[in-house]
Write a structure and sequence with these properties.
The structure holds three protein chains of three kinds. Chain A is mostly helical. Chain A has 29 helices and eleven strands. Classes of the chains: A mainly alpha, B alpha/beta, C alpha/beta.
């Protein structure tokens, strides 16, 4: 019989049940509403397109635990534990709903309990509970005994209490399940040998000869204890530091469905819509990321900036946002939405007179930029996207950094980035001081300039680095030679080519990016360009994924894809050039950003004599060269050099050649190789250079080899 | 409210890649390259930064004047984005990059036309002509003092105070305002405008005057004859000194450098 | 205008002696005067400088105008301008030569505007056009990418001459000349500009951008200790040490020493590149240097394509010898 049907001190169990339930539900809703209202402090963002797809995708991601499981490795198989817990507790959630909610609360226990349904369900729960307990023991060992790097974090007392209580409550709930089964069956009749553990316990209790009244009393106590514990969890959950069980679902539903590599395009006229300097400047979705963070620490341990000793931690940014919102948000809500106009930190140039004067929050909180995250940390990001790749909750850490950078560039360009940004504005390229004109690399190669003859099938977009940077010119020459050899009808823009805008955008100077992009789009249109091949993944990403938002839709191909195709079509015949052991560096903007991993490897495998050896970190978890995010032009003076770290990883493979497919990787590794004095023992080459070296026809004598 | 005037010249990009730089020996000037837009002369940008630094600390109105045959709006209006309040363009067929006297005269006339002023800032020298005389010329024509090669400029109520490098150290010089000051790079690199600055620049006023509106005579103002202009032949030949040993080579190198009076 | 005749040279005095530019100008002036068949004169302005007049005469000056007054000890625009105007009005030269020095660069334009004539700055070469008998002045334009030759139609033809561009005058103590003392006659009350403070600063803190001589090292230097040797050379030449990016990356020298795209742009009279390959990001930082010298053990290094003088040698062996010989010459 259900304990709810009993009378306690004259009051029926139903009243107590529903009274407690109402309190718990009320407190739960109250808190969740606050959390949602805090989110609404943020800017609007449209993540409500394709709702059906979003919903189904969320269910799929959540229930398959896909994002978590794909991060499991031999060294770190803990995602399996989480899956156990998730599925196990999911089943329990349904059980509580059915048996406590409908069974007891609505008095349907005669229908639901005591029959085959209950037997089957409880049997499943018996096994699920074991899995959950295993998962919890796993958690205890990981978090308190082993303490891997990923989980090392300075935590507040409250955060520590949250964790400990969560683990305890779950284990207790599982034990209560067995307890209730045991005492329940012992008191009211053992149904047979299923559920296995429940019935086993019950039989033990029966043979212990405990009186029926005691059994019933214990059973009822356990039942109410279980109920109150559950309600307590319901009240505590949204108030705890661990919000992800409630919010990870929604984060998956609202995840970014646009190309990963496309940053948000903003209307630069509407400066109230972009650039983040205080918590309310983030969009509600960005703030939701804070709730959805699971503290797994994966983003922290894959971030190249963090690994090389910079003050940037994606995890701390997200959790910092959450904490800041929880601390500052309620006051902001009190002061009203208008208070959002006033910067939280004092000293900032006051909001323009158009906003009404408002009472600032009572305690002048710390400034977001400077205290929650330092400027150094903001500039340390290389935009490699490793953090977003690995996050089980689909958080978008990198995008937040760019928003912060946009704010820092609002009034005046920051000093560190001044040279490349000014050069972009004035000269259309970020390489201040280059001695080269954009066509110097092509001298003597007899290449069509589209301004003179626009009848081409393909535009070869050279990119600033390969046109103007000493080492990279050779790559442009190699690509051109390959295209000529294969008989491709291509042309270059020559002096008309301007930067694609990627460095400007990554450094936060959105106005420069849009100026350059609009210029280029107009230029392409005027020549009726449709197909573009580029050897630079940054140009590739921007032209392909970001130009469409500004009205420029073109077919954009990376040179690795193009050359792989030429080789497949037998348009390039490769001779054996020599035995070489080669490793390949996956450029972040080609790999993680655009999922292009195979073509460069195909190319390397089709060069006779080449043996490809993979570095330990490759493909999706490839390691950045440190040049992205505009960092190519910024000083790296804290900690180790990211490029040197990666070069060491390459040297560990004992290869002779490190192949790249990105001019930034090329530059960074050449510089690192010089510092580490590798000399001839490790050559850094673009894949185009390797293919060109392997061609049958000898090089043109006029080439600047 | 202080009135500060900054004279900024639009010049051929001094960082132009050499393969794009050519002299028209007939016209005796550089051929304007198609692909490389002109820029504001670097020392003039420093001068603007000096003006803006003063504006940072006291209420000032900064007017930028640019003079040329044909001015590129995008280039010169970047001065407004950097923080200037008003842009005055002096454009006339008769103006020339190399006519110092006419340039100084036109600028002086424009300054007079604008009204009262406290300080006039110019770059030390223009990146194309490399002469460094216009600032002095303006001062001479307006009858006010001129302090050249400043590395720090301050404007008090009635005084201009300048710090400049001297033969064996530095000097602080004061002159009664108004005065002309020419600046070197040490006054500071010009702040690069962010997006906000660009947006607000679009609303700032631009005035355009030609020689007639300035009331100046353009004929017969050039006391020079440009006889020739050419690119010096780039030999690209390095004189390699030989020797039997590194030590001998090194010694020969010193000797040679002494011979050619480099050391 | 046709009354103007002769060459007048402003002889700068530093530390009680003629500055090297003064001797160079006297040499050039002497040459020009003899080509024109006219007289060379000199003007000396300062305090306690009377004794130098004889030296000017020994360099070929037939007349030496001396304005010797305590208030003129250090250069200041207004008094020097007044005095020079006075001298020019008395001497009425056809050609007036000054140095392209801090004082010359300040003074020459003033004189041009005051005297209703033109000044040509940073002259690298001076010749007399045989046909017109006017002074042909060659100077750099467009940052040194081109050169211009021009003639001033009015007198005096004022030229500010680049240091070390002219051959210094030979000295002949047997030469005779006249010393003309002139009163400055400056009413100090009428001076508007005032030098409020003078600071003598030791040359220790010379900035890379200001240095006339830069000694730069590259990756091949190998260590911070290696850079000490470059410091020694720089010290002898009163120059400053610079570096390419790798030594800064490797922390052998502070980042402030970096020359190149992401570092500083320098334009010294002499740039000595030691063990650096001359990658373009670096070269663009110094390619407008007047003279570039390279020491590198790789004959194919790019630096040899931009240098004017060089030796193919390992710097570890060559630099000590270079330094020793330098000590003899300069020290």
């Amino acid at each position: 019989m259900s304990p709810v049907a009993e009378n306690y001190l004259g009051i029926t169990g139903y009243v107590i049940f529903w009274f407690l339930f109402a309190i718990a539900l009320g407190l739960f809703i109250q808190r969740v509403c606050l959390l949602i209202r805090l989110l609404k402090l943020g800017r609007p963002e449209n993540r409500f397109d394709r709702l059906a797809y979003r919903f189904i995708n969320m269910l799929a991601l959540a229930f398959t635990q896909w994002r978590n499981l794909k991060a499991a490795t031999l060294k770190d198989p803990s995602p399996i534990g989480h899956a156990f817990m998730f599925w196990g507790l999911g089943l329990f959630f349904i059980a509580y709903l059915v048996f406590i909610g409908f069974g007891s609360g609505f008095g349907l226990f005669t229908v639901l309990s005591g029959g085959a349904f209950e037997t089957v369900f409880f049997s499943i729960l018996d096994i699920a509970a074991i899995l959950v307990i295993i998962a919890m023991l796993w958690v205890i060992i990981k978090r308190y005994v082993i303490r891997p790097e990923r989980l090392k974090r300075e935590e507040t007392t409250e955060e520590k209490i949250t964790q400990a209580s969560l683990i305890t409550v779950i284990i207790v709930l599982m034990l209560l399940h067995y307890g209730m089964e045991g005492f329940g069956y012992a008191a009211y009749g053992v149904p047979g040998s299923w559920p296995p553990l429940g019935t086993a316990l019950a039989n033990t209790l029966v043979s212990a000869g405990i009186s029926r009244d005691s059994l019933v009393a214990v059973y009822q106590s356990l039942w109410w204890f279980n109920y109150i514990l559950l309600l307590g969890a319901v009240i505590y959950a949204p108030r705890s530091k661990h919000l992800h069980p409630l919010f990870s679902f929604s984060n998956m539903a609202f995840k970014n469905l646009n190309p990963r590599g496309a940053l948000k395009t903003v209307d630069i006229q509407k400066k109230e819509e972009w650039g983040v300097s205080k918590i309310q400047d983030f969009s509600w979705k960005q703030l939701l990321d804070g709730y959805a963070c699971t503290w797994c620490g994966r983003c922290h341990t894959v971030c190249p900036a963090q690994l090389s000793g910079k003050p940037l931690s994606p995890r701390e940014l997200i959790l910092g946002m959450k904490e800041h919102l929880l601390k500052v948000g309620p006051d902001l809500l009190k002061a009203g939405r208008a208070a959002a106009a006033v910067p939280v930190a004092t000293g900032e140039a006051g909001a323009a007179g158009s906003e009404p004067a408002v009472v600032p929050p009572e305690n002048p909180e710390k400034a977001f930029i400077g205290d929650v995250i330092s400027e150094d940390a903001i500039w340390a990001c290389t935009t490699c996207l490793a953090c977003q790749e690995v996050c089980p909750s689909c958080n978008e850490q990198m995008n937040n950094i760019i928003e912060l950078r946009r704010h820092l560039q609002m009034a005046a360009v920051t000093e560190t980035a001044r040279d490349p940004l000014k050069n972009l504005r004035v000269r259309g390229n970020p390489w201040r001081g280059t001695m080269y004109a954009r066509t110097d690399w092509a001298e003597g190669l007899d290449i069509k300039i589209i301004g003179e003859d626009s009848h081409v099938d393909v535009l070869y977009w050279v990119g600033c680095t390969e046109a103007l940077e000493d080492r990279s010119l050779k790559v442009a020459q190699a690509v051109a030679r390959l295209m000529k050899q294969a008989g491709v009808n291509f042309g270059i823009l020559g002096e008309e080519e301007m930067c694609c805008g990627d460095p400007a955008r990554r450094l936060g100077a959105e106005h420069l990016f849009q100026m350059l992009a609009m210029n280029n789009i107009q230029l392409f249109s005027s020549y009726n360009i449709q197909k573009i091949v580029t050897a630079c993944p940054h140009c590739f990403n921007t032209l392909k994924n970001e130009y469409p938002r500004l009205g420029g839709q073109f077919e954009v191909i990376h040179h690795s894809q193009f050359i792989a195709d030429l080789i497949k079509k037998n348009l390039l015949k490769l001779n054996q050039f020599r035995e070489a052991v080669v490793t390949y560096q996956d450029p972040c903007y080609l790999g993680r950003y655009n999922d292009i991993y195979q073509p460069p490897r195909q190319i390397l495998k089709s060069i006779p004599g080449v043996t490809l050896v993979e570095m330990e970190q490759n493909r999706k978890n490839g390691f950045c060269c440190g040049g992205g995010g505009g960092r190519m032009w910024l000083e790296e003076d804290t900690g180790q050099r990211i490029s040197e770290m990666r070069l060491s990883q390459a040297m560990d493979t004992r290869v002779q050649v490190m192949a790249t497919a990105c001019p930034f990787c090329l530059q960074m590794f050449e510089d690192a190789a010089r510092v580490k004095e590798v000399g001839e023992s490790l050559k850094i080459r673009d894949i185009a250079e390797l293919v060109a070296e392997a061609l049958e026809i000898p090089k043109d004598a006029k080439d600047k080899a | 409210m202080k009135n500060i005037i900054v004279c900024m010249k639009q010049v051929l990009d001094p960082e132009i890649p050499l393969s794009l730089f050519h002299i028209d020996t007939e016209a005796r000037q550089a051929i304007p390259p198609k692909a490389t837009p002109p820029v504001l002369s670097p020392f003039d940008e420093n001068a603007l930064e000096a003006a803006l630094k003063i504006k940072d600390t006291q209420e000032s109105n900064v007017t930028v004047i640019s003079l040329g045959k044909k001015l590129n709006r995008v280039v010169v209006s970047s001065a407004l984005a950097a923080g200037a309040d008003h842009l005055v363009l002096l454009q006339d067929e008769a103006f020339s990059d190399f006519n110092t006297y006419l340039t100084a005269g036109a600028l002086a006339a424009a300054i007079k036309k604008l009204g009262p002023y406290d300080l006039i800032l110019c770059g030390l020298q223009a990146a194309d002509t490399n002469t460094g005389q216009v600032g002095t010329g303006i001062a001479s024509m307006l009858g006010i003092p001129c302090i050249t090669a400043a590395r720090k400029v301050e404007l008090d109520d009635d005084k201009v105070r300048v710090e400049k490098v001297s033969a064996d150290g530095s000097e602080v010089i004061e002159a009664p305002a108004p005065a002309v000051v020419t600046t070197n790079y040490e006054v500071g690199v010009l702040r690069e405008p962010g997006v906000e600055a660009f947006m607000s620049a679009a609303k700032k006023p631009i005035t355009t005057w030609n020689a007639q509106e300035l009331g100046i005579e353009t004929a017969g103002t050039d006391c020079f004859n440009m006889v020739q202009m050419y690119e010096p032949v780039q030999e690209g030949k390095c004189e390699i000194l030989e020797g039997a040993s590194p030590e001998e080579k090194a010694e020969k190198l010193v000797t040679r450098l002494t011979e050619v009076k480099v050391i | 205008m046709s009354e103007n005749t002769g060459v007048l040279v402003h002889c700068e005095v530093t530390g009680g002696k003629f500055a090297p530019i003064a001797i160079e100008l006297l040499g050039a002036g002497s040459r020009l005067a003899s080509e024109l068949g006219q007289e060379l004169s000199a003007v000396l302005i300062g305090s306690d400088i009377g004794g130098l007049a004889q030296e000017a005469i020994a360099c070929g000056a037939k007349k030496v105008y001396v304005i010797d007054e305590p208030s003129l000890k250090d250069y200041a625009t207004e008094p020097y301008l007044m005095v020079m105007e006075k001298v020019v009005q008395q001497a009425l030269p056809s050609i007036l030569l000054l140095g392209q020095t801090p004082s010359g660069r300040d003074l020459a334009p003033w004189l041009a505007f005051r005297l209703n004539t033109g000044a040509t700055m940073d002259c690298m070469a001076l010749e007399i056009d045989p046909a017109t008998r006017r002074l042909l002045m060659t100077r750099p334009v467009y940052g040194g990418n081109a050169q211009a030759v021009q003639v001033c139609k009015t007198d005096p033809q004022i030229a500010a001459v680049r240091t070390k561009a002219m051959a210094p005058s030979a000295k002949d103590d047997t030469l005779q000349g006249r010393v003309i003392n002139i009163e400055a006659g400056i009413d100090s009350a009428s001076l508007k500009t005032e030098v409020v403070e003078r600071k003598i600063e030791a040359a220790v803190g010379v900035r890379l951008e200001d240095a006339r001589v830069v000694v730069a090292g590259g990756r091949g230097i190998g260590s911070a200790e290696g850079f000490q040797q470059l410091e020694e050379v720089a010290g002898l030449l009163k120059g400053v040490v610079g570096a390419t990016r790798p030594p800064c990356d490797a922390r052998w020298v502070p980042d402030s020493r970096q020359i190149g795209i992401t570092g500083k742009i320098v334009s010294p009279d002499l740039y000595i590149a030691v063990a650096l390959s001359g990658a373009s990001q670096h070269v663009s930082g110094f390619f407008s240097s007047k003279v570039i010298v390279a020491i590198n053990k790789d004959p194919e290094a790019n630096i040899f394509k931009v240098a004017h003088y060089g030796i193919v040698a390992d710097w570890k062996a060559a630099l000590p010898a270079f330094t020793a010989r330098l000590k003899q010459v300069v020290g």
